[in-house]
Specification:
The chain contains 13 helices and eight strands. The protein is α/β, with parallel strands linked by helices. Strand 1 and strand 2 form a beta hairpin.
């Protein structure tokens, strides 16, 4: 990673990493849960080699960016506002935003909240999602049960305590490739429950997890894995979980938003992502009319780290055609 820098933006002291010349269209990389700016190390290296300006922040509540205590300080207005505040700090009028997992939600929502500041959007794994007809937590609770991880995350402190109790085990559970032949059903991630059991009861799964018998291969080196473990042992998981605890608030406050993403966009799908499969992006063109898609083969959920060369090639090709240097 390049040297860490800091900016006081939108009420937080934000850590960020920057590469490339300060010219042309910059790209800001937004990580997901439970990740860090470090998750974009391969992309920063590739963009620097290509002479592209790129920035990756530790977002609010993660890594070296300490977040406020108040849960409501992690809503989508704050999260998108942090990115625009970082742009202001760097003197950037417009940027392309690239987000993975929860960062994907941030970058798809950013042009709805800050239309004049976003030049383009790249979503990794996470598609644009229209506003639900009712509270999304109520939908998930009815369809997937009380222990489905996003529903469970709504209980203050409970999931945090389980994940914080053994960060090494939790990160070992998260940071693996899919097992050979693994799909949504075999991973226990079917879209709806068929009995009393909840879908994807992550907290219970982590509690019962034994790394010694996990057949899924690693995609991190030992040093990379230790970087994640050491960071989350220091910070805990509450900051990231607080993003989930604002899903109802985000839904309530977005009733009057125009849901059209009116900038050039790229959707990068991962062939073997059981949580956000390629089919999740079906129908996006209705809200994202200037959309291209690319499928990354043989990748699970952690696409930019599992298949960095394929991801880098797709991102740089799209940037070269839409925002040439």
């Amino acid at each position: 990673m390049p040297p860490v820098q800091y900016a006081d933006v939108n009420g937080v002291h934000m850590a960020y990493y920057e590469v490339g010349p300060r010219e042309g269209m910059p790209v800001i990389f937004c990580h997901g849960f439970p990740e860090l700016a470090f998750s974009w190390r391969h992309q920063l290296r590739a963009f620097e080699a290509a002479g592209r300006w790129a920035i990756a922040p530790d977002q609010r509540g993660y890594g070296l960016t300490k977040g406020p205590d108040a849960v409501q300080a992690y809503d989508i207005e704050h999260l998108t506002g942090d990115i625009v505040g970082l742009m202001d700090h760097l003197g950037i009028e417009k940027a392309v935003l690239c987000g993975h997992d929860w960062g994907g939600i941030v970058v798809w929502q950013a042009p709805l909240y800050h239309r004049d500041r976003i030049a383009g959007v790249i979503g990794l794994n996470t598609p644009f999602m229209r506003r639900a007809p009712v509270d999304p937590i109520a939908i998930m609770r009815a369809r997937m049960g009380d222990e489905m991880y996003i529903v469970h995350f709504q209980k203050p402190g409970e999931a945090d305590a389980v994940l914080n109790a053994n960060v090494r085990k939790a990160m070992d559970f998260f940071m693996r490739r899919p097992a050979p032949g693994e799909g949504a059903a075999s991973a226990g991630l079917a879209s709806e429950r068929t009995g009393e059991e909840s879908v994807f009861p992550l907290v219970r799964m982590v509690q019962a997890y034994d790394p010694a018998v996990d057949p899924r291969p690693f995609f991190l080196s030992d040093d990379e894995f230790e970087a994640f473990v050491e960071t989350f042992e220091r910070t805990g998981f509450t900051g990231g979980i607080n993003w989930y605890r604002n899903m109802t608030r985000n839904w309530e406050r977005s009733a009057n938003l125009d849901e059209m993403v009116r900038v050039p966009s790229l959707m990068v799908m991962a062939e073997k992502d059981a949580v956000l499969p390629p089919s999740a992006a079906d129908g996006m063109e209705a809200n994202v009319p200037d959309l291209e898609r690319v499928l990354i083969k043989d990748s699970g959920h952690w696409t930019q780290q599992e298949q960095p060369e394929a991801v880098n090639a797709a991102l740089l090709d799209w940037m070269g055609r839409h925002f040439p240097k």
